[in-house]
Amino acid sequence: MKFVPLLAVICLSFCLIPECQSKSVESQFDAYFANSRYARAANGKEKKGKKFDPKELDKPLLDENSIEEEYAERMLVFLDGKKTKPKNMNLKQKKKSMEADLMDRHPRGPANEPRVPTKRKKRVFVSEENVKWPNRIIPYTISSSTYANTNGINSVWSTAVNRFNEAGCVKWVPRTSETHFIEVVGNSARCASFVGYLRRSAQTLWLYENGCVYVDTALHEMLHAAGTMHEQSRIQDRENIISFNWAPVSSGSELNYEGYPLFNAREYDLSSVLQYGLTYGSTTYMYVNDPDLAYLTRITQNDLSFYDKAELNAFYRCADDCTNPPVCQNGGFVKQVDGVCSCECVDGLTGTDCTQLDTSSGCGGTIDLTSPGASDTIIMNGYQTGLTCTWLIKGPVKTKIRVNVDSLGLPTSSQGNCYHYIEIRDYLSGSKGKLICGNSGGASFTKKNLGPTNMMIVRFNSAQYNTISPGSGFSLTVTAEPSACSSSPCKYPATCTDGATINDYTCVCTAGYSGTNCDRVDASATVSDSFEDDFTTLMTHGTSGVDFQWSTNKYHRFNTIDKTASDGDLMAALRNNFFSTPFYYYYVAKMETSVVFESANRCLRFDYVIANNDIGGTYTTRLTVRVYSDAAPSTNEFITNTGNEWTTAEIDLPAVNNMRVEFEGRFGYQGLAVDNIRITPLLCNGPDPCDGVVCQNGGVCEMSGQCNCQLGFSGEFCENDVCSGNTCVNGVCDRTSSTEYTCQCDSGWYGPNCDVDPCLNTNCNQGSCEALSETQTQCNCDPGWFGSNCDVDPCLNMNCNQGSCEALSETQTQCNCDPGWFGPVCDVDPCAGVNCNNGACMAQSETQTQCSCNDGWSGDFCDLQLVSYTCDFETPTESNCFLVESSSDQFDFTRNTGGTPTGKTGPSSAFTGSYYKFAEATNRSPGDIASLESNIPFNAGTYCLSLNIHMSGRHIGSLRILTKEGSASAVTQQQYTNAQSNAWFSFSKELSLTSSTKIIIEAIRGGNRNRQHKGDIAVDNIKLTSSSCPPASGSGGTGQPGKGNGKK
């Protein structure tokens, strides 16, 4: 999650012309990607001890919305020395995300449009306070008239508000009389919100009824309204985690990926509510640099992620209200909710300061590796099921935790899913980790250089599938590896390799850069920046005398024309923002070099565009390039429009000490973008010793005019290739010097020339040969075959009768019995000799059976016929009705069709069929009773009584359902008093009846005067069945929507 930055709250938006302003949106894909991960229903933390059905994992294809699918995507299964994924993963698009496709919009508010300053404004950073809601309160109201299903939006919104309010000190509250508030509307086809506090009477948040009414979508938009932007827009660190496929990104969706300098308290969070999914349809838009972490962009998140909550509390400074805030350790943070300050801990840790472990008894623990290079082991051999174990591994500073899997024996399903697994959090401790299982050790996991590298959480779970027998267990070695690279010493960008101690490291520099930290440029080097890696190479953001910052974009609008970059996919552009803060003309953004240049003559070249929509006035867009050094700075200004086309500029850079180049953009009426900045040796128009020198095969012409050849090439122009005419038969030539090479053999081939096939004379029968070395092979047998040459079938002489044989090893088999058969060889039929009379026998185990009765029969052996009575009043006399009018009451029920004679009371029609009975209140006195009572003897037993009731009107009395045993007093089973609903509602209850039991249904006239007659009580569809009530019926009345009375 990403909040508005101190220095960049106003640098985001798109263009100035009216056509663009009317359509300026954050994204047409936002709804799709915001929802593509959330179709499964769950909350943030995994539920300890939750049990799953192991049969689900044997399905050939998992339900894409199931929790099993979520876990499968996290799994790395190591079988027979190979890393695999479950075969039944289902990565197709989620139905819910498709419904929300193309509906997200984030319009620019009035504050975002550039303003003419009334006086010269001092250039300072815009405070992020401008986008925050005052007093951390966000009032809201729901426009019920824009939703057909108000229950749906109310339920989803209530859940989202509860989730948000539980996360910290920012509260969404129903509006009372507040002037500024959020209005949730559902009749516009978009999921959308303004970004931040707009200071307007009704700030709209759109949740379209047909596609946006989901908890996660609501949270996504609520975070925008609170002042956030997308995770993938974090320009300062996104390139370490994700990369982009810019080719399919259109001008309408580009703003989803635009890079902004954002305020962040925590590390990049792939599981954030505001991180988009990686794909749209069959097209991939983003990649996770570690593909094994891609699951974090898809997993269930019907809550804010752990780091969303941390960012929210930091941005709104929730802990500032804490008198004595706790000191949260091990990645936890202080959360303040309703004045209560506490530590929010990562899953697996607990306690007031996050130092205690949430772990099963007898396993888990804290492992303190007190010195660099120290290691310890975690061994779980002969484990039990039902365990959730947690280990907290900690090392000293400048170390990275590494986990080596020495041995692994954790069971898997037939589709390769983990029944029992180890969770390794090598990304962020507060995110869900990778799950590993299988039968092969050898894997290694190192904490990523993201957040604290000297801490890792490892968990083990044998509880979710506790009916599955344990495997052999596992053994892990955990090490605090020395890591000087954990402080990211290499620059522009470079690859850092750790050395033997915490201070040893090596930087492998990008071409053009040199020095210990790759922060120097030699006189003969060429360096450039086309912003493909945002501002992490040659150019970085300036911080002195700026109002906002440059953003990186694929498209930028110049007048009415969308332009793409002059080189590569991205450019640096000036844009006003989406955030709810004032933005003024002549705001300034800067970018500058920070590398150390060796003193030498150079040439600066760059491409730029200034739009041609000159409209006069003072505020003309300006690009100023300044060159600073020990001498006086030089200034070059560009203000003339380029006709909306890219133009290349050249500036000589004479040899000076401490050179620094600065690009200042001053926001005006015209659009401005810069791209393809390059600094090359020699002055721009000076003689070039490399003119006419064409170095081949990747060679580079140096200042001397000589070719510097790549490894393996030689000659004046690097034209000689040592691999030319190589003898690598089944492999590739690997150049080791300008005169020597070695052959890198394809899999299965050996020898100096890769022409030796060790499997040539090996017969593996029912299997395949695998070469282990030039002289060693092994046979990998097909399922069911064993032996060194895969010629042993353990099932050959095994008779499994009513089942099939499965080979477990060369000497062990088991019979898998057909349904209904049991025993070691599937010859036991537990139903033999069982008479189920009016039903069928079903074997539950080798010794247990159960009779499944035909309709109308019950009992252990289906020998009891069900008795059923129905009073639906469709005919004046009903042969199967068990109720008659009582002779001991003041008046009778009336059989009726349509509405009752009195307005504003009674139903408008029967619940079922055409007729029903009702107790008419007109011409009756308060307290008068109309009764129906049973007139037949019942066989002793349990019965289910059910009926539908209508009680609507100002003068409704009571309806009582009673039972009476012989001459004993009647017992009330249920009573309803006063109006219950404008619709029919249902009642059901189990009754224990005997031959002397009477069932009585009484309607008591309400009101306190005779003329108060809006009190008609109706009953219909009365049923009595000699069986238990279905579970869904409950044990009491429930008000359920039915047919209303339709009277006004």
UniProtKB/TrEMBL annotation:
Its EC number is 3.4.24.-. Binds 1 zinc ion per subunit. Residues 1-22 form the signal peptide. Keywords: Disulfide bond, EGF-like domain, Hydrolase, Metal-binding, Metalloprotease, Protease, Repeat, Signal, Zinc. Pfam families: Astacin, CUB, MAM. Residues 363-481 form the CUB domain. Disulfide bonds join C490-C507, C509-C518, C709-C718, C759-C769, C781-C790, C831-C841, C853-C862. Residues 124-319 form the Peptidase M12A domain. Residues 96-107 have a biased composition (Basic and acidic residues). It is an enzyme of class 3 (hydrolase). This is Metalloendopeptidase. It comes from Magallana gigas (Pacific oyster).
